[in-house]
Every structure is written in C-alpha cells, then in structure tokens.
Amino acid sequence: MDTQEKFEFAGLPLAVYREIAAHLRQVEGVEAGLIPQSSQQFDYSQSQINGLWISWSANSRLASRQRVQQILAYYHSLYGV
To answer: What is the reported pTM?
Structure first.
C-alpha cells in the first residue's frame, strides 16, 4: 500500500513547485506531482498550483522519508512558507 500526502506552500510560483517536485522525485521510493489550482477566480497573488502530492511506496526506507522531510524543510527555510 502506498502512502500519499498533500503539501501546500502558500504563494509559491509554479517554477518553485516544479523544482520541489523534481527534487523529491530523486529520492528512492518517492513520487511527487503538482495539484492544479481549483479556484475559478484569478488572483494575481495566488499560486497557479494548489499544492504538491508526495507518495511513498509501502517498502520505502526510513532514510527516504527522512530525506523528503529534509528537502521540504530546506524549501520552507528558503522561501519562508
């Protein structure tokens, strides 16, 4: 069974979301993708992306999960979101 989580980083631009997803996909046993914005109203200050999903395979190692947390913490500290 796979475990999937959703993460939201308010106000991040599309390019940064893509960078985070690409970075996460390099971790063994991890898949990541973008969740499109669901709002029908355009808001210039709102990201084009609603969030990021991350999925771990059932047999992914603890080291992989820890690496994901390190990557997310890095982007959190870099962009302050």
So the answer is: 0.82
pLDDT digits (tens, 9 = 90+) for 23-43: 999 999 999 999 988 777 766
Give the single-character DSSP code of 10. Answer: T
Q: Which residues of 26-42 are buried (b: 16+ CB within 10 A; e: fewer)?
A: ebebbebebeebeeeee
Closest by CA to 7, choosing from 28, 30, 29, 26, is 30
Average pLDDT, the chain: 86
Q: How many CB atoms lie within 10 A of CB 58?
A: 8
